Amino acid sequence: RVDMAHTPVTLKNGEQASTCPPAMGDSFAAGTTDGPGDFNFKQGTKGTGNMYWNWIAGFIGKPNKAMKACHAPKPILLDVADTYPHAWVPTVL
Q: Which of 41, 45, 71, 77 makes the best surface tag, with the fewest CB within 10 Å?
């Protein structure tokens, strides 16, 4: 069993870090090299600025400060670890 949300890792430069609870950023919705995503999502942006998508994302689950800090500088679109009533993705594999 590996807790993918809190596994310590050593980076190439020797710095200690940790994995984060799962979340999906704006780049997830922007699409891939084989085609763009729908709506107003673009790779490399920091949020859509779209009130509708911000409301949807907030309705699904709002990331707390620790989650935001762990994923920084990537903005979190969907906090899939803390969804109610069940997490959308596993954290322990």
A: 45
